[in-house]
Amino acid sequence: MIPFVNLTAQRDAYRKELETAEKRVLDSGCYIGGPEVRALEEELSCYCGAAQTITCGSGTQALELALMVFGLEPGDQVIVPNFTFIAPAECVQKLGGVPVFADIDKRTLQIDPESVERLVRTNTKGIIAVNLFGQCAPYEKLREIADKNGLWILEDSAQAFGATQNGKKACTFGDISITSFYPSKPLGCYGDGGAIFTSNPEYAEKARLLANHGSSERYRHIEIGVNGRLDALQAAVLRVKLRHLDEELERRQQNAKVYDQFFKDIPGLTPQVIAGGNTSTYAQYTLMAENRSDFIKRLNQAEIPYCIHYPSPLHAQPCFSAGATTDSGCPVTKKTCSQVLSLPFCAFTDVQAVVDRLK
Ligand SMILES: Cc1ncc(COP(=O)(O)O)c(C=O)c1O
User: Fold this and answer.
1) What's the domain count of the chain?
2) pLDDT computed for residue 131 by the predictor
């Protein structure tokens, strides 16, 4: 069976470096925070060009911390894409805010700025833009809308650490940006992990404080915060994988080209379009299948695993559905949910084998 994401092949490729790094931490007696985590934060800033990086426990926690830094209050509205993983909308609602669901572009599947604009109200405080499946959202247009209406932008780059837009790296487009180090992400650790990025020193200071129980000085707590720590073992693993990220992203581009080449001649199967000026991490290689159930039968016969990212618009999830506000029901999101499908993909996937089985 071809694995959907081949994490064991990746571990085999860097085994020596990983084991050295893991042993260094296990023998150090320092397992939370400390020099390994500080070094990772500096290396992440250096890689993506963010002024400050604050690591934390997960991508979801990074989103929650960012919303706390922005000072989200009960009743505040935040515009989120209707077609993505639940975390952005979940964090808004968890803090008492109101997620308002924008539609997406039918080709790139990214949040549609025109839909965002239609949803701005007097109590709208910000926009969460998700870099879906690994390519950046349309930040130029989103920034215009944000500036015109006094909104902040939270860039959810959980799937896109290492992507670029017009030569600039992801995690630098938001007033605050976040990523996830969930194991299967383009830069993943061996458990949960996440990070917050910002060029605003006040936001950075507040994020650091809130991620450490609201404390900058031992046993003095200025705010109610959270336990938002990344452990040293995960930091050490990430430092090894970060060194290989660019070569992995290159292999991901090559793999995507093999799929693109194959699907361009197959009617009814249309891969997600990568917008001009964007490079994608291809956190997922996703396509629209006009007749998805037939395509699934074909995949099953060929023993090719697949995932449906995502089967339902977020506004229709039971936790939001009572009175959720959408942009006219988000017709593009609805149609996309019925057609979308992701194929096995990572830097170590034998995509030619997938294509051969489909021929
Ligand atoms: C777009 C998006 N945002 C946030 C998250 C949450 O990240 P984590 O699983 O690290 O909490 C994910 C995880 O899949 C995601 O895809």
Assistant:
1) 2
2) 98
